[in-house]
Amino acid sequence: MTTTPALWEFLGGYLHQDWALEFTNEWQALDQFISDAPELASSMTDEINRVLSEHKSEDDLHAYLAQLGANFRPLDEAGYRGWLSEIARRVEAGRS
């Protein structure tokens, strides 16, 4: 059992190996996840904050996210930390 069910569902269910066949980009996948599972999305920000505090290095974050089923690699210099922070920001913006 995972301690991050929202991230597990989003990463494994929406950003899986073939995600690019279904979505234009990761943000479209996130929007679909929020629409499909609003109850899970509501806990995403807390989960991301916990993951960021527990996994300090990029390599550790990458390994943890891969364990959850993510097949996505951020292309910008902000890396996984910046990408997860942006996910949290977008989820919060959608709740307002």
General description of the model:
With about 100 residues, the protein is mostly helical. It has one domain. It contains seven helices and no strands. Helix 5 (about 45-55) packs antiparallel against helix 7. It is globular and about 30 Å long. The N and C termini lie far apart (about 30 Å).
Q: What labels describe this entry?
A:
96 residues; mainly alpha; 70% helix
Q: Can you give me a brief rundown of this structure?
A:
This protein is an all-alpha fold.
Determine the number of helices (DSSP H or I, runs of at least 4 residues): 7
User: Main β-sheet, in a few words?
Assistant: none
Q: What structural class do helix, strand and pairing data support?
A: mainly alpha
Quote the average pLDDT: 91
Q: How far apart are the first and last residues' alpha carbons, in Å? A: 30 Å
Helical content class: 55-70%
Protein name: CdiI immunity protein domain-containing protein
InterPro entries: CdiI_2 (IPR041129)
Organism: Nocardioides koreensis
